[in-house]
UniProtKB/TrEMBL annotation:
Organism: Zygosaccharomyces mellis
Domain N-acetyltransferase ESCO zinc-finger: 16-53
A GO molecular-function annotation: protein-lysine-acetyltransferase activity
Gene name of the encoded protein: ECO1
Keywords: Acyltransferase, Cell cycle, Metal-binding, Nucleus, Transferase, Zinc, Zinc-finger
Places the protein is found: Nucleus
Classification lineage: Eukaryota, Fungi, Dikarya, Ascomycota, Saccharomycotina
Alphabetized PANTHER family for the sequence: N-ACETYLTRANSFERASE ECO (PTHR45884)
Gene Ontology, cellular component aspect: chromatin; nucleus
GO terms under biological process: mitotic sister chromatid cohesion
SUPFAM superfamilies, per the entry: Acyl-CoA N-acyltransferases (Nat)
Domain N-acetyltransferase ESCO acetyl-transferase, residue spans: 185-243
Similarity section: Belongs to the acetyltransferase family. ECO subfamily.
Pfam families xrefs: Acetyltransf_13, zf-C2H2_3
Protein name: N-acetyltransferase ECO1
Length: 257
């Protein structure tokens, strides 16, 4: 099977990259999710069905899972809902759309989120083993999900950054600025929204939720949220969300290595 996608490394477009070749005969390409697979092979068909559904519509997510975050009309005031003894989601349980923080001590939530991230990493051609910072009990990192109509349709994982990893990147040519040591706080490890829900502001709302809720009691400045090797669409999102115009006229994106 193969998935057409953009790459995480340097944002260069990949025409096609093979994950696994089942059969060279009788391959078909799904026009909706971009996967190439062999319909005559049961494993291939099943893998395609799972990938297709996730890629387009996200993954089923029970409404009792996760710690709810209050979504307000003003982007920059998302806050965790106060703990509720009757409902884990507090006041948000009745809403169709909500943002939740994955509880790292709840195995089912962690497992399902890792499953979502597997699909994301396949699309991004990114490593599948970068979850430690959010999925262990008492981790300093976080995973946030955007849940809409009982499906997790967007995901964002955030890590805390050490100063030596932080860099400015020039947006237009993706080059790293030498000789400057910026100090960013949060690293955007993965951000993804399922295909049918893109361009509705979901990624921006996830970023705002993370900005206000990753470090308890502290809201991080937008420019202190750094990107890890942004893809083409990630770079565009970054340029809208927290690109900084340098006096040279060049747009800078906070990044980390
Ligand atoms: C990148 C991604 C997460 C954006 O999600 P989204 O929910 O569609 O983003 P938003 O709707 O919040 O977009 C916010 C702004 O960024 C812009 N933007 C986001 N993605 C864009 C794209 N691919 N092309 C052009 N502009 C884009 C939007 O136009 C919007 O600006 P506006 O408010 O002025 O209209 C989504 O396209 C995605 O999942 N892509 C595949 C995974 C990926 O590449 N992730 C990035 C890894 S670094
Ligand atoms: Zn498909």
């Amino acid at each position: 099977m193969a998935v057409k996608s953009s790459r995480k490394d340097g944002g260069k477009r990949l025409v096609q990259s093979r994950l696994q070749i089942s059969s060279r005969d009788n391959l078909t390409e799904c026009t909706k999710c971009g996967m190439t697979y062999s319909p005559s092979i049961i494993d291939d068909t099943t893998t395609h069905k799972n990938y297709h559904e996730m890629h387009l519509k996200g993954k089923k997510w029970p409404n009792t899972w996760g710690l709810g975050i209050l979504l307000t009309s003003s982007n920059d005031s998302s806050r965790l809902t106060p703990p509720s003894s009757s409902s884990k989601m507090g006041a948000l349980s009745a809403r169709d759309e909500r943002i939740i923080m994955v509880r790292s001590d709840h195995q089912a939530e962690v497992r399902t989120t890792i499953h979502i991230l597997d699909i994301v990493n396949s699309e991004l051609h990114a490593p599948h083993n970068e979850n430690e910072f959010w999925c262990r009990p008492n981790s300093s990192g976080r995973a946030f999900l955007y849940v809409k109509e009982d499906r997790a349709v967007g995901v964002l994982t955030i890590e805390l950054l050490k100063p030596e990893r932080c860099r400015w990147m020039i947006y237009e040519d993706r080059s790293i600025v030498d000789g400057v040591e910026p100090r960013f706080i949060l690293g955007i490890s993965r951000i993804w929204v399922c295909r049918t829900q893109r361009n509705k502001g979901i990624a921006t709302r996830l970023l705002e939720a993370a900005r206000c809720n990753t470090i308890y009691g502290k809201t991080i400045e937008k420019w202190a949220m750094a990107w890890s090797q942004p893809t083409d669409s990630g770079g565009k999102l970054a340029s809208h969300y927290n690109g900084v115009m340098h006096k040279s006229g060049k747009l800078l994106i906070p990044c980390y290595i």
